[in-house]
User: Fold these one by one.
Assistant:
Number 1:
Amino acid sequence: MTSDAGLTSQDTDYARHIQEVLNELRQMERTPRLVTSPDELEALEREIRQRTDRLGSLLVGYHLQQALDAATVQAEQEQLVRQWPTPLKNDGRVKVGIRTAQGHTVPVWVAYYRRKGQRRVGKRDAGVYAGLVVLGIYDRCTPALAAEVSLFAAMLGSLREAQDVLANRGVALDTKTVRLIAYRYAARARLEQQIDTAAFEDTVAGRRVVISSDGGRLRLRETKRGRKTKKGRKRYTGAWREPKVLIVYVVDAEGKRDASFAPVIDATLKGPDAVFALLRTYLQRLEITQADHVLFIADGAPWIWKRVPLLVHALGLAAEQVHELLDFYHAVQHLGQVAALRKDWSAKARTRWRTQQRHLLLRGEVEQVIAAVRPLCRGRHSKAIRTHREYCIKNQGRMAYAKLIALKLPIGSGAIESTVRRVVNLRLKGPSIFWCRASAEAILLLRSYYKAGRWNLLKHMATSHRALLEA
């Protein structure tokens, strides 16, 4: 292996190579270069950056080797090996190339532990570089590089865009490597999330909490039965699937979102039960029982409302703490559809009727709204109008808008609608975009934490090795 930082597989003399780069930089300092055009200035900046990036990588490699040789880290790696799910045997120290955030690869010597038993000729048994795991190094990438690659994969429009941005920074990775780093990063974070029960640093004690959930749309690449293509590839269908998205946020005394509390956002393709299991975990870690008010707000989807009472009971929330509310604008939309079905009305009459019902809803007079719809259930579109009436009757207990307005709590689910758009639609939905399920799950997790402003928490989860010990 030849490293990008200038060290060969037989050479780890970091002090000498660091001194060489420092000499090059001092030489540039002593002999200023006259630049006379923007292109020349850009070339100079790139040259300086290449040297400083190389210097940075060498320093990282030097400190990393010192850490791996330190008694403290060696004691931690021995403890990790003892706790490993399968017995491991020290196979000796080997040289491993580690990619750094500066875009270079540096070699370090580290102990390799393999499974106990007779070693197969020509093959390395499944094992682990315990010292690297202790320092949060997976896939031969430093934690800073893995976090940056995963962040670009989540925030940009595609893995190709992430590759281009990294290349402009001097980090040359192909698309497959970007994918592998980001998806494994997300997988480790999800595993750690499942076993971590510690409370968040910020809680919702004494606060007014709003909880909402909804579904998005994306297309999954699902294997199709039958013969393969002429090129030997499996056929597939692009089935539309609905990822479930959740958000938990806090509002102040005026009903506006509290900027001091970063919202909790997550998403999954595993269905309603999975998203409510996630929601339960988050609310427990936020100490939801100590909140002043807990508002569940969503559209009329039955998969949401039939699970809310079960969640409330599981969390141990008091009845006086909890409010269930149907999104006001979904309710108004149904009334607008009722008016649109009255073909014998003029446009002005439809608008007037819809506005009257809207005002009644805001005053909490839901019975009068239902009574106003009932006589319209006749004629050609009676069945469709009756469906909208049943929608209002079914959700009548969740339409206490006047009460929630008095409490200065939100009556609209715009937060979750916006979250679905930012997390799902702007990254995973588009023309001719098909996802494998595991890939979509990875991007959903990464993008959810990025959009929530909780990326540092995700980094902590992805670099932890506790989940590996539970395997």
Number 2:
Amino acid sequence: METATEKARRPGPVTGDSVLVDRHWLDAHLHDPRLRVVEVDVSPAAYDSWHIDGAVLWNIYADLKDADYHSVGAAAVERLLAGSGIAPDSTVVFYGYAPELGLWLMKLYGHADARILDCSRDTWQAEGHQWSTAPAKPAAGGFRLGGEDPHIRADRAAVRDAIGRPDTTLVDGRSAAEYLGECFWPSGGMEPGGRAGHVPSAVHQPIDGLYNADGSFRAAAELRRVLSPALVDGSDELITYCTIGGRAARAWFVLTYLLGRDRVRVYDGSWAEWGRTDGTPVERP
């Protein structure tokens, strides 16, 4: 049974519904035995230059996607969690390029205590919080995945079925250039054999303007002004997508946790899968 002292060492104070972690609290609790910190990025470059002390890296392309950009299976996720020192009772705090994708993955498999650091990497370092260049080597965890939560994930078949449906809105969170088919990747490049454009009937909602200057999320009232009222206040199901899932997970997180929207799912295959799959419909102006 957890003692009063152990309870006091659990995460808090936090904001909202306890999913956003205050940076000062995290700095004070970095070495708590049940705490695990994970940086989520698309390459090891930023992590190798410096990272929050004790944090491990989840490289989206190397750890969360296979060679064809499909999301890795449950066995690979279990190995990743074990190598990250994550156990069933761990509090996991994500930060970096796509922390929402890390949190979404934990929620997909039923882990209750997953959080997001409510500031940017730059703010963390600039304010003098603890950081390191040494790779973290946590003791192996013992996490065993449960079943997936079908309420927060959509696969390619679900997206195809949602095209044109009045009760479901497909939400494209990419840039205008990606949505219009002027490029395949956010960097502006095309993909050999891939098709640029968007899923037919998808609405364009760039995931921009969500943060304050320190990288913390803006207040709910401000977020409502950034996002389309139809997405925030509607009652239809939403399926978000982007290129590799990071921005789609960010939209899901903001809509679900910060604005209280229900029935939001992430198409984690996103355009890297859709645009490279023969036979999937693609629309361009």
Number 3:
Amino acid sequence: MEEVKKISIIVPVYNSAIALYDLQQQIDSAISGLNVSYKLILVDDGSDDNSWEVIKDLKSKFPEKVTAIKMAKNFGQHNALFCGMRHAKGDYIITMDDDLQHPPEEIKKLIECAENTHADLVYGISGNYQRPIGRKLLRWGFKFTSKLTFSVTAEGSSFRLLKKELVNKLIKHNQEFVFIDELVNWYTANIKYTNVRHDPSKLSASRYPFSRLSKLYYNLVFGYNAFLLRLITFLGISSSAISFLVGLYFLFKKIFFHVQVGFTGIVVSITFTGGVILLSIGIIGEYMRRMYNIMNAKPQSSISEIYE
């Protein structure tokens, strides 16, 4: 494997103080065996525990190896990653979680895959990752949405390696909501996968409950494709056609069979059409709200403290 002069490892931190010392130690041990210089970028994404104090302590102990960034509030995992990317240097940028589910010694596999395949992006995929049923459903939703947007079915992982050239393109995006695994498909198809080990989380409870993951999926649906707008067009055409056929049916009965037309058909038609209209207005309103946020330059993130 050719030597990589420098890499940056970005870790978004959220209520994981008890794991950070082990994380830094294991990363340092893993990288020292690769003869590669590195910078560990720890981004505190509005933690409620003492994560920031631990990050500052690590910075004081390893000033040349650690960059400490504190967000002004919780902006979300991908926004925190983007913040870290803007301070990253080196040939490769590696992202990983803060709970040691991704063993740092597996970083070697990402680098080897990138060197051997010249990929722009390498995902570390694990076959032994056991997810609760709720997360499995959301994961299926992510893949379904990705297929609607890009006509591909892609695997993804928060344990990934990106070339610096790709990162330089990604960080030009300044919109409020960003999702790395969707944006990379705008710039490259040169994506590879490598099998890595997946360990149990060092934290007792998940910091990303089903409600937060559901919100992420909601933002993904509205933020990165126009599928719902196309659905509105389909519903509009369908409801118009159905209403026209219903009208012809009652007109035919009235003219040829002299049947007294009651209010049932009218009520059904109005209710159906009204429901479609209200749904359409709601969807259009959500897209307009997001355009409003973009026009008003709602910030993607905000840093309150940084120690480079």
Number 4:
Amino acid sequence: MAIEAAVHEELLAALGATPYERNGSRRGYRNGIRERTLTGPTGPVALALPRATLFGGASAKEWTSTIVPRYQRRMPEVNAAVVATYLAGGNTRRIRGALQPLLKAAPLSKSAVSRVIATLKDGLEAWRTRSLTDLDVIYVYLDGFALRVRSAGKVVSVPVLGVVGVLSDGHKHLLALELCGGESFAAWKGCLDDLVARGLRAPVLSIIDGNPGLRRAVGETWPRAAVQRCCVHKLRNLERKAPKHVLAEIRDDFHRVVYAANADAARAAYAAFERTWAKRCPGVVTSLREGGNELFTFFTFPKAQWKTLRSTNVIERLHGEFRRRVKTQGSLPSEDAALILLFSLVASGQIKLRRIDGWRRIAAVLSQHTSVAA
């Protein structure tokens, strides 16, 4: 068998001599065979693996294979299949049924599945504590969404704070995922302070929704960064304050503002919106004014990037993928499991973050930003 042959070759290299060979470079000796059963893609496989003892000065030690490590019971392909099935939305019980044709008669207990999934936690912890000093983040998208998790025997909705950065080459990079008690100033400030403590430099632009706690946290953490209010969130706010029979008109008038050809045309459309709706729907106009000039920030950036920068849709789509993957599970078993799943979906490539539109113009943005800062 190929696995046995590979292990024998590995042992030959470790000992420096074939069986019964006598030479001055021998580093140990063989001492029998150990029977092992390894679960692979075709089911359980019986293996006869060599044992050996290595010379180690005054004492000898047992040789261990790196191809089939001690205590390993499954090939990496099986563990990968367990993880992939979990990330596709299966819980630990469903995984065993889904992989039964692959495992044949080999056992795969619930606890074994849990141990495999737990290996993802190491990757999450490394990601959450990694240095961000080498990241050249130009834009950041910040938003929160709710996730259903099981806590103290009850299924509750827990807010997740998400931060996605755009690097100088246009690629998006997941910077933070944090479960918290709510989208308060303290929660967002703690999230951003952690990013700064790990070396994240201030971005040129922050794209946010209208959460006041988030706006304050961004202002205190990165006071010199420009801020763009999400136009999609603002339109939703306007629609909630308007009667149903005028929703289409309000939507069209608002689109004339955010889809204008330039900043001057946008401000003219903004003034027209105020004139049209000030008396008919004063609450709508008050909500529009609350966004202020931060609804127009994206006009100061290259036109090729306007579509990407005028809203938090970048992170909204990420949230949508998260929800779609966890929908089959109803609720996640714990907060740790939630973060592990969300992070692993991105880290494994099952959720892809593509470059932003107009990424080739980022160099011009950096050049302009540097000259203004100087």
